[in-house]
Structure prediction request, 413 residues.
Amino acid sequence: MKYHLRCRHCGCEIADFGAWLAQGQQCRCGKNYAEVEYDEPLRLPSAPPATPSYQDYYFGLLPLQSRDNIVSCGEGLIPIERWSNLEAYAASKGVECEVYVYRNDLNAGSGSFKDISAALAASVLKEHGVKEYCLASTGNAGVAFATYTAKAGIAYTAFAPNCIDPDTVAAIRRTGQRIVISQGGYGAAKEEAANYHKDNKVLISIGNTDPLRIESKRLAAMECLRQMGKLPTVYMQAVAGGTSPLAFEKGFRDLQQMASRGDSGMDPAALRLPRMILVQQDECDPMVRAWEKATAAGFPEGWERQYEALHDIKTRIGILTAANPGNYPLVAPLVRRSGGTFVRVAEAALPRYGKEMLRSRGLLLGPASMVCYAGFFEAVDNGLIHNGDSVLLNTGEGCDRAAWFKALVDEEK
Ligand SMILES: Cc1ncc(COP(=O)(O)O)c(C=O)c1O
Ligand SMILES: [Zn+2]
Prediction:
C-alpha cells in the first residue's frame, strides 16, 4: 500500500480510501477527521513539471494508487506571482517586504481553488469505483465538483441555497450535472443534501476536514518551495471554513519530515510555519469576532470553543457565508500557534480595492479574492507585516461568475 488514513481523534488506522468510503467517511469512533499518512518516505519531484496536472507532478505525494485514474483539466500548478504594487504600498508605510499572489483563478477546471480539491476527489472516487456523489455548496465548490465528476463519469448533484449567483447555476448546468436550488439558505441546502445522501445512499462531501481536500490543498506549501524557493513568512487568505490553512499546515509538516531526512533541499531549522493572517468581511465575520473576544480575555482555558453563529447576515459574497464557524476550534489554535491573527475588512470598500487592482494590475479578481487583497492593506496599516517578510496571498477565484461585483467596480470612480 502507498498510504493509509489515521483518525485524528482516536489514532485508529484506516486501510485506504476504499475502506474510508465504505465505512461512511468516518472512523469507527464516529469522528470524520482523519489524515493521510504515507508508507514510504515522501520525496519532492526533482525535474520541472512535464504536464499541467499537479496530480501527475506530485503523484508520489498523493493518496492515489494508479496514474490511470487521474482526472485533470490542468490545475494546481498555477503561477505564484510577485506583485510590486503591494510591495510598493507596504514600502510607502515603511515596510520592506516581498508579496506573492497564488493565482488560483488560473486553474483550468473552473477558475477557483476548489479545482485542486475536486480534481483529487474525482480521481480517488474513480479509483474506488464510486458512481454517484453529492455536495451542498454556495458556489465555487459546487462548480468545481460538477466539472471534475463529469469528467470522471460520476453522476453528481449540487444542492445550492436560494441566493446562489445565476452565473454559478449556469456553470454547473453547462457540465451536464444536476443542481437542486433550495427555497431556503445554505443551512436548508445542507439539510437537503444530507437527506439525499441518507435516502439514496449517495456519497456526500464531508466538508472542511475532508482528507481529500486537505491532502490536495496542502501542496500549496510544496508549490511555494518550487516557485519561491522558500516558504512565505506570512500566509493570508479569506476564510470561510478554513480548509486551506489547515491543509497548508499539513503540507508544512510533510515538508518538515522531508527536511529532517535531508530530502526537501531545505534546512529543517529554516522551515517555519508562516504567520497565518486570515481575513473575513465585516458582513460575515464570526471568526474575527470570536478571536477578538479571546484576545481581550487573554486566551483563557477553552477559548477556542467560545464562538457564536451569526444570524441575518447580509453579505453578498456567497462563498464567504459560513455564519456558523464550526471549524474555529481547529483553525484558531493554528492561527495562534503560528503567531498570526484574524483581520476584518469592510465589504463596502471592496469595489474600491477592485478599482485599485484594475489600475495597478489590469486585472480584477472575484469578491472572495478581494477580501484577501483588502486584508493585505489592512494588515500593513495595522503593523502586522514586518520588514523582511515574504507574504503569500492565497487568492481563490477570478471574477467570471460575479457579474454583480464587476458592476459595482465599474460604478466606482
Ligand atoms: C475564492 C474562495 N476564497 C476563500 C474561500 C474560503 O476557503 P476556506 O474553506 O479555506 O476557508 C473559498 C471557499 O469557500 C473560496 O472559494
Ligand atoms: Zn477514531
In short: Residues 243-260 form the longest helix (18 residues). The pocket of zinc ion (ligand 2) is lined by residues 7, 9-10, 12, 27, 29, 31 (CB under 6 Å).
